[in-house]
Design a protein that fits this description.
The chain is of the alpha/beta class. The protein folds into 2 domains: 208 residues, DHBP synthase; 82 residues, Threonylcarbamoyl-AMP synthase, C-terminal domain (Rossmann fold, 3-Layer(aba) Sandwich), CATH 3.40.50.11030. Helix content is 29%, strand content 18%. The chain has 9 helices and 16 strands. Strands 1, 2, 3, 4, 5, 6, 7, 8, 9, 10, 11 and 12 form a 12-stranded mixed β-sheet that branches. Helix 1 crosses helix 5 and helix 2 crosses helix 8. The radius of gyration is 20 Å and the shape is globular. The relative contact order is 0.16. Magnesium ion binds next to loops.
Amino acid sequence: MGSNIHRPGPETLAAAGQLIRDGQLVAFPTETVYGLGADATNSMAVAGIFAAKGRPRFNPLIVHVPDLAAAQKLGVFSPMAKHLAAAFWPGPLTLVVTRVAGSPISDLVSAGLPTLALRVTSNPIAQALLRAADRPLAAPSANRSGHVSATRAEHVAADLADSVAMILDDGATTHGLESAIVDATGDTIVLLRPGAIPIEALESITGTTIARAKGHASQPTAPGQLESHYAPRAAIRLNAASVEMGEALLAFGPAPLAATGPSFNLSRRGDLIEAAINLFSALRTLDASGAAAIAVMPIPNEGLGEAINDRLARAAAPRA
Ligand code: AMP
Ligand code: MG
């Protein structure tokens, strides 16, 4: 046991970088908590993160990059976003920005949102991994769903040893509190999650009062209940046994329902990982077809099917 925990030297880091490029998961330290990292441009690898967390949900993930220049290749930085990055990066600040057009980042990373949460950590091992992998890393906290965040490599091993290819050990993390998340997509900055940087420190840099987001899941009881989660315009009808007039079809499996209108099969061969990868682009495509409603075939509630059904149930819930 614990054999995939490594105190990283240059060779281990090179091997870890290769594992990331091969689509494997590597846990790494940051100044806040340990992250469960995967190549953010590889949808299969990102799906692996959700599967590894157990009882998964498609919460949007933070993407780690080595510096501001790398971040600006992925997201649109306003002057204020740049100003915050210059003041706090590397450090425990996550900036939510609009994705650049033609972004190489997997749809699954931001759960279908047009935005991206970007962070530059100061941890030297994480920085070395980013350079060795030569890929942006999608990384939620390296714990199983519902467990507390891991602040030591041993915590990661206890929760995730079977699903991570390697755990990079840097002892105890220094903050043990997650990064502060700020929405920097608009003219005014909004605090989405309080974290290791106090709001006062952010305000002293912006020179303004920063609003706190209402209803954001900063409370551990309601993770992922983000108001900004992608919601289709069309109504969603779950567990459909037939397709009605004017409905589009979101199908799953080798025997799709008969449909005369627009349809999209999440996975013809009934593969839940493939379905997860297709979910957000499928919803967007069917929504754009102009159908008033989307009939969704039943999806098995196992493995990533649970996360798919969670996301669909939220999309089908009555709108405020
Ligand atoms: P964790 O990785 O466990 O620290 O959680 C990541 C946090 O970042 C979650 O609270 C997400 O809701 C938030 N997040 C990630 N991407 C976005 C985004 N594009 N917009 C808003 N919040 C985001
Ligand atoms: Mg977490």
